[in-house]
């Protein structure tokens, strides 16, 4: 399995727009090789808001195909890029326990509208 961890910093003024755009990733549910995506806001004291999104893929090949053929149409279509201050992406090829830990992080306030499940 491949896990994609995305960390985005968002200015307070753009938090609602970011959340709305993030909730528009439902198209992932029909992408071959996609399993699940979840995310929310990290609990922070001050500074910019930080969103963490975890997506799970069957394989690196499925993820690479998505990135080459479908990612940009979703990303450009929801205009999320305009409200992101910074973005950091990390890829892991790990097992089930690692995924469980990432998806159940107590430092994240998960947003129900950001959850995408395979159709």
From TrEMBL:
DUF4937 domain mapped to chain residues: 2-92
Organism: Bacillus tequilensis
InterPro entries (UniProt xref): Dimeric_a/b-barrel (IPR011008), DUF4937 (IPR032555)
Domain of life: Bacteria
Pfam families: DUF4937 (PF16291)
Protein name per UniProt: YdbC family protein
